[in-house]
Amino acid sequence: xxxxxxxxxxxxxxxxxxxxxxxxxxxxxxxxxxxxxxxxxxxxxxxxxxxxxxxxxxxxxxxxxxxxxxxxxxxxxxxxxxxxxxxxxxxxxxxxxxxxxxxxxxxxxxxxxxxxxxxxxxxxxxxxxxxxxxxxxxxxxxxxxxxxxxxxxxxxxxxxxxxxxxxxxxxxxxxxxxxxxxxxxxxxxxxxxxxxxxxxxxxxxxxxxxxxxxxxxxxxxxxxxxxxxxxxxxxxxxxxxxxxxxxxxxxxxxxxxxxxxxxxxxxxxxxxxxxxxxxxxxxxxxxxxxxxxxxxxxxxxxxxxxxxxxxxxxxxxxxxxxxxxxxxxxxxxxxxxxxxxxxxxxxxxxxxxxxxxxxxxxxxxxxxxxxxxxxxxxxxxxxxxxxxxxxxxxxxxxxxxxxxxxxxxxxxxxxxxxxxxxxxxxxxxxxxx
Length: 433
Fold this sequence. Notes:
Elements: E1 2-9, E2 15-17, E3 36-45, E4 63-66, E5 78-89, E6 92-99, E7 102-109, E8 137-141, E9 153-157, E10 160-164, E11 176-180, E12 185-189, E13 200-204, E14 207-211, E15 224-228, E16 233-237, E17 248-252, E18 255-259, E19 273-277, E20 282-286, E21 297-301, E22 304-308, E23 311-312, E24 315-316, E25 320-324, E26 329-333, E27 344-348, E28 351-355, E29 367-371, E30 376-380, E31 391-395, E32 398-402, E33 414-418, E34 423-425, E35 427-431
């Protein structure tokens, strides 16, 4: 069934019954610029609302009633709850809501108009439109992870941010958390089979891989595992040829690379690099690095693999190497401005962004960008918090920094980078009715 109902959106963020405006125009002063008027087509359904929705999430606790703005007018009240909303055109919105316990699809049609209404508009002193304004987007602190964690693995998968393992003051973790940017919500995936920290992870052919690291008991790991989202479980993968902690892990050309890392005693970096073929399920060696390094940032860009900074023994490095898989060679390129280990790296708009880390004396918040076309590094806006051994990843067109150690505390907080403003922020914007 379908009915047409008239609602208006008041300045105090309530949906009210617009039919009651008949003869009540004097309730609203001519200088009230905040009332928004809209005609609503409600398609009712007996189906329950979905558990999760791909549209932008509206505060699920936004509830209210359809009532008269004039307390003297008697009318039935209808309980309502907004589930989700999405702008489908310049003046059209699609909303999901529950009215009196019935799940409804609501189409909101608004229009832009001048400040004063045409004379043909009945009983309204000015034209009122439903148009999402900037002041209806409220900022709130981004939801933190359930667990504070440093030395974690992070990756983007299916439009979500995955944060796995890591350590805090007590132990290495098995837990895996998944962040949905559209809902600002963290949920848990199946835990890893092995507690691990000081590792990196990568997505290879749609599957999430973690390899190596440390279990928190002075033991470097050779084991690895792969997350299968179809069954929400981790499956063991062939072990590394050697135990390896603090190594860089990256997918390139359908294969998984693990480069550098710590020696078994954790005193100096390694040069050796191995590559995993998911078809043959074998690890083989590839060309070694030019410089020993561990706690480096590693990523892929433009068909090359980059390893950035890290430490040789405990001396922080600003050197950077690039791997060409076609001729199996590592080449030194322009160094960073700041030597650092335990930094994270993400790719955005064809450039590398290296974030935070440890400079040899304290955790740092500085960020620099590498332009491969110019072979140059440029300092960018600082993160809002120092972060060493944090998780850095790009989801959509946004760089996320999660967790890490700020020099005093292990973090569960999140912040994001805005390329246009060159600023980091711990806030996200949500729609508020």
